[in-house]
Amino acid sequence: xxxxxxxxxxxxxxxxxxxxxxxxxxxxxxxxxxxxxxxxxxxxxxxxxxxxxxxxxxxxxxxxxxxxxxxxxxxxxxxxxxxxxxxxxxxxxxxxxxxxxxxxxxxxxxxxxxxxxxxxxxxxxxxxxxxxxxxxxxxxxxxxxxxxxxxxxxxxxxxxxxxxxxxxxxxxxxxxxxxxxxxxxxxxxxxxxxxxxxxxxxxxxxxxxxxxxxxxxxxxxx
Length: 222
Known about the structure:
Blueprint lengths: L1 H5 L7 H25 L5 H23 L4 H24 L7 H23 L11 H21 L8 H26 L4 H10 L3 H14 L1
Helix pairs in contact: 2-3, 3-4, 3-5, 4-5, 5-6, 6-7
């Protein structure tokens, strides 16, 4: 809904479309997960592994589109391919599809947090970083950073504490709270300007120090 209200005229932006498809996929995954749980299907484990891979893939593609040219940008594809391979190894040989993919999600969280910090580092180094705070890309990165940092330990202990009733209640509360927070922050992101617009605004901002310097040189020569 927020996409239609604020971003429907900017649908050609690739980063924007990645987040839109990510949100739509999350909605479909939640519906499928609820259905598989209701019929107590064992295939829900494969749904969890699939969600981990696709969620990670969505983020990697997004961060590849928005992060400045650097060693980190060139390494995103390596991170993506390496994690996909690891997730398959975990599914087939380690976990063998018998439980929650806590180990794989833990690795995913670490990589995503590293990429988020890298993006923020590169952006905040800019002299005009005050514009970044009002951009779509910045708020999406902040969303993923808060979501994965808040659920990191929750997912790490999910498999080993699966039979603990008290943990199950805490898991439900924490998980749904951070999912709600994620959705709220993505709605906020949809209201922000796109980064290409920010770059245009940046180009229009005059360099006052340079103008004063030029004016003083002209007066001095006169």
